[in-house]
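Researcher: Structure prediction, please.
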Amino acid sequence: MDTLLTLAADPAAWAALATLIVMEVVLGIDNLIFIAILTNRLPEERRDIARKVGIGLALIMRLALLGTIAFIVTLTRPLFELFGHGFSWRDLILIGGGLFLVWKATKEIHHKVDPDPAPTVFGGGTASLGFAAAMFQIVLLDMVFSIDSILTAVGMTPHVPIMVIAVVVAVLAMLFAATPLANFINANPTIVMLALGFLLMIGMVLIADGFGAPVPKGYIYAAMAFSALVEGLNMMARRASRRRAAEAAQARQG
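Model: Predicted structure follows.
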């Protein structure tokens, strides 16, 4: 209690909390896009519960990792050296998660381009997905993103209460944004392809980070924001074009 009161009276602690919340929300975007795309493949009546369960598991995983910070820090210690780079458990987890994201995004893009692929391509000829399979994949990526999130938090502040508050606020933001984002992605086919491109890029970034060549997160999110802005302008242009076409048709009929 004394520690909490001391932190509450410290302006630096409030600044660290605000910064960490923003960082955690930004880092959660990757997790949220993956959950949105994956759950949109489920039957409509199961999508909402899958999103809530997936985000709930992300919160539980992050809080559990915060309770084992001493262990989490050891994940950055090199296990072996290869090509002049010391690989740690964190590196291996990021590489594995990145490879999974690249595979998953490539598979989803292939299904969008060719909705009826041959059975030998990417392991099946259908884009359907079961609830258990979706949850398993969400849990895998939750683990990767959670480790990245907690290691970021540990690097920004030594105070566990600040980390806990930031993680809870960020995950609650994900929970509120999940359904609107998923519906928006589902209603706009070009947004689906853009989001899959984001996942492909994030997967490559995770792999690069695992191999000791980290890409500054600011560049990644700036590129994502710019791409989203351009796509937003394209959507406005298409909407205006449809409106003009409808008005022209009405004028001809009149």
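Model: The chain is about 80% helix and 5% strand.
Researcher: Thanks, that helps.
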